[in-house]
Design brief:
257 residues; Four Helix Bundle (Hemerythrin (Met), subunit A); Nonspecific Lipid-transfer Protein, Chain A; 5-stranded mixed sheet; 5 strands; MDMPI_metal-binding; MDMPI_C-term_domain; metal ion binding
Length: 257
């Protein structure tokens, strides 16, 4: 997708979320149990502000220190954070080196994409709560699916051991040319950087040449994206094959997102 599309989406979705927050500040979010609309505004504001600090400081080896949201005027504070972050990202080349947790992509472009999807998902949280949902545009929705698979859920680090489950899932959008074939599994091992030990952490790897996947899941790009992110219903999708494998995939995605 075009980089400006990500930045425009951040601005648009932030405004939608904040408009809901101004009218319904204490409304509970069924998709984020224990949170209100104001809570998700503060959460997103902290993420935007920290990303802004990352860009402004040009960090390539670590994240900046976390920031706290104010107790009052949260929407105004979060709005300024979003505007400043979009402005900062718009002012640098997407290939500019910046720290990320994803070792294969250490660029500003990573954050343009990541922040666009993060903002869209939390805008959707608020819209679900008020019952007025604006579905994602189909190419954007397909990219939301792709990011979960490519960034949040995929692969085994070099220091880990991959454990395949021999269960293959095929996902396909019905309204845009996008599809993915993946094998479910898990990895375990100890990170040499943090010392943290992972045991059977769910994940997936892309595969090719599988003629008979265990389950085929098809639907609109928005239906796939909202389901994978835990904001949509399986009833909006067509399932052909082993439902248990579909739910195993959804569980792995839930852990990742």
């Amino acid at each position: 997708m075009d980089w400006n599309t990500y930045l425009d989406a951040i601005a648009t979705d932030t405004k939608r979320l904040h408009d809901i927050a101004l009218s319904n500040p204490d409304l509970d979010l069924e998709t984020c149990p224990g949170w209100t609309v104001t809570d998700v505004v503060a959460h997103l504001g902290r993420i935007h502000r920290r990303t802004l600090d990352l860009v402004n400081e040009g960090l390539t080896d670590r994240f900046p220190d976390p920031v706290d949201a104010p107790e009052r005027d949260v929407v105004a504070w979060a709005g300024a954070a979003a505007r400043d972050m979009v402005s900062a990202l718009a002012g640098i080349d997407p290939t500019t080196p910046l720290y990320t947790w994803h070792t294969s992509n250490q660029t500003a472009g990573f954050w343009m994409r990541r922040m666009a999807h993060e903002t869209a998902i939390h805008r959707l949280d608020a819209e679900i709560a008020v019952g007025d949902i604006v579905p994602f545009e189909r190419e954007f929705a397909a990219d939301c699916v792709a990011e979960v698979l490519e960034v949040l859920l995929t692969g085994c680090p070099p220091w880990g051991t991959w454990i395949p489950f021999d269960k293959v899932v095929y996902l396909a959008c019905t309204d845009v040319e996008a599809s993915w074939m993946l094998e479910l599994g898990a990895f375990e091992g100890t990170s040499p950087t943090s010392g943290r030990h992972y045991e059977e952490l769910p994940g997936m790897e892309f595969v090719t040449g599988v003629d008979d996947p265990d389950v085929v899941i098809t639907g609109s790009a928005y239906s796939l994206a909202s389901w994978i992110w835990g904001r949509g219903s399986l009833a909006t999708l067509d399932i052909d094959g082993d439902l248990a494998v579909a739910m195993l995939f959804r569980s792995a995605a839930a852990d990742a997102t």
